[in-house]
Amino acid sequence: MQVPWKLGSFTISANVLILLLLIPFVHSYYDPLELIKDRILNSDKQSVEKMSPKLSFEITVHGVLLWVSMGFLMPVGLLIIRMSNTEMCGRRLKLLFYLHVTLQILSVLLVTVAAVMSIKNFENVFNNQHRRIGVALYAFIWVQAFIGFRRPHKGIRGRSKWFFVHWGLGTGIAVLGVINIYTGLQAYHEKTSRSISLWSTLFTIEICFITFLYLFQDKWNHIQKQGMVLRAEPVLPTNEENITREEPRIRAKNTLLMIMNK
Hints:
The relative contact order is 0.07. The longest helix has about 35 residues, at about 195-230. By secondary structure, this protein is mainly α. Helix 5 (about 130-150) runs antiparallel to helix 6 (about 160-190). The model is unreliable at about 1-10, about 15-35 and about 40-50 (pLDDT under 50). It contains 8 helices and no strands. It has a domain at about 50-220: Four Helix Bundle (Hemerythrin (Met), subunit A) (Up-down Bundle).
């Protein structure tokens, strides 16, 4: 009788142990909302833990670098090279060209620093639009820099094709860079829960001003040309002025005819 008792006590102990082990699974089975709630709370705790002051500072520096490079230097570089299209002075044309090149090189360097920071310090998981666009921009920017240094001289065959590719790619990079700054501000808001309305407004005002100057250049040249044409063309008298000028002659002629008839 001793063996069955020991066997029974072992069986009861084993069943109790199995039930204790199955309690969390049974609880989660009957209360899935609690399980989901726990997972959300744990993920929030992990995100809060990851957002340390150091990481917040690195994200801010990353955003400032891209704002200065792709949100200011690159659009201003496009504006300057557009100004050179109507410049007739060789010295000023050369100055505008080298200023364009300097701003674009500086922009590429700042973008590269921001890219190294993102690869080194941030999560390399391309699960949002900002990160995917950023990776494409990093590649396109260096391709554009290589194309720029391979610029053929004027009059050489293939210069027109190079100009079209360089202009199209540069314009596309500038537009995509502006879009990605907005997505970066939104990602910063989602990550830190901080307001971005002020920064979005300031950036929008800046881009609208640069776009206005970019589009106004052609109109300004057109206005200047219109003024030159008006000054160069002779001013023709109107019909009323012609009649007024001819009246004394007609009167004198009629008077002379009357005298001769007498």
